Amino acid sequence: MKKYLKKLAIYVLPVLIGVAVRLVYATCKIRVHGAENRNNTIGSGKAVIGSFWHYSLLGMFYHCRKDNAVIMVSSSADGEYISRMLEHFGFKTVRGSRNKKGVQALKDLVKAARNGENTALVTDGSQGPERVAQPGAILIASMSGTPIVPMAWAASRYGTIRSWDRTAFPKPFSTVDLVYGEPFGVPPGVKGDAVETYRLELEQRLNALYHEMWALHGKKVH
Fold this sequence. Notes:
By secondary structure, the chain is α/β, with parallel strands linked by helices.
């Protein structure tokens, strides 16, 4: 019985969460910042690597649902729910993490980026540490020649999930601020210390956007 319920949940819960996210956002006031950064890349048909922190994934799935991206999702059991929810929003996924299938997932994203598809990954990974960048986006950018667009959002009223990163979601009728950061490229063939330099730059950019958005609502962190 438990096995049957678990299998049923894998099919049903992602759809229910996806519908709930759509309904909540339909009541929210959304303010977009850095629209020129989107218009000069995605809006002009240029492929990008979307980069954002794990706390923001529910909002990002909704905001980017029309951008036809290939997204890296953890190969864990929990990742199955996220993968199916992404498919509900119209995304394609590849599965991998630091501990399992990660190399192949990165290769799949590089291939997608080279083919002109938008790609995205949660930059602090599926297990953290919170708001500490992992090198995946840097490696994909270097190997594909595709620019990274850092992103963040914040809300005037929101709730959080009991998770390592306090995954956030806006409450109905809240004001949501979303920002597209300035795109930046990574030269081909980066390795070693150079990877670390660009990784730190991405981390700093993402955290600057994070603090900028939450400051609009009188907060330092969510």
